[in-house]
Amino acid sequence: xxxxxxKVSMALFNSNCTQLDQYFILHTIYRSKKEYVSSLLRGRGxxxxxxxxxxxxxxxxxxxxxxxxIEFNDLNHIRLQYKKGFKDFCNGAKxxxxxxxxxxxxxxxxxxxxxxxxxxxEILGSTIQTQMRGVRLNDMLKxxxxxxxxxxxxxxxxxxSIKNIFVLSGWAFDRNSSDRVVVALVNKMGxxxxxxxxxxxxxxxxxxxxPDASISCGFSARFLFDHIDDPTNFLANAPxxxxxxxxxxxxxxPLDMTKF
Length: 260
Fold this sequence. Notes:
By secondary structure, the chain is of the alpha+beta class. The protein contains six helices and seven strands; from the N terminus they run ααααββββαβαββ. The protein has helices at residues 10-16, 33-39, 76-93, 96-119, 204-209, 231-236, and strands at residues 150-160, 165-174, 182-186, 194-201, 218-224, 241-245, 250-254. Strands 1-2-5-4 form a four-stranded antiparallel sheet, with no helix packed on it. A three-stranded antiparallel sheet has the order 3-6-7, with no helix packed on it.
């Protein structure tokens, strides 16, 4: 706990991080996202936990205070040397068939986990929300799971009545997808108000609070109202809704007209 769940201090890590040992144990939590999701199905029956998914995992994402990823692009010879050594080891130990069985096991478990989640997608925002941090499951699927995954905040909104312009600022991201959230304004008939321009804004404060968020999740959007020349006409055409959407998630927020 004193090292933020790390196994070594940062000082020791920094002194060794560009070296690859000849052999090492790679814990499942640090493997691919597919392997990570697959491993969650192992459960914890050995401690009488009846939950389908393991509950002692904190997500695939790095902790906010953890070190950044390491790229070995400038140390390609080290990476290639390791890969050759691994291949030689597998050939010498004659475990190619076992590796193939293991890959099939991972794929099967992953498919089973997806079917469980697809039958009850609400668990992505409740029961297994912590475990699925950083996975962005829909990025891995052709047939997306429709979820209520959009997290957002509307920070400010104002009507520039002289120019018929409505300005909306805030941030939004989909915790189950890396797709950019589309921001729209619609009227009571469902018609979309014309978008003049949209500006993405870096929000490191949001990333600190929500590690799943992308740094550019902030936005400022300007909408143009046709045939509205004063606030009275604007109010008469209420209600309006802010629509936030990705390919797999959609959320509509009624505009609070008491602010105008």
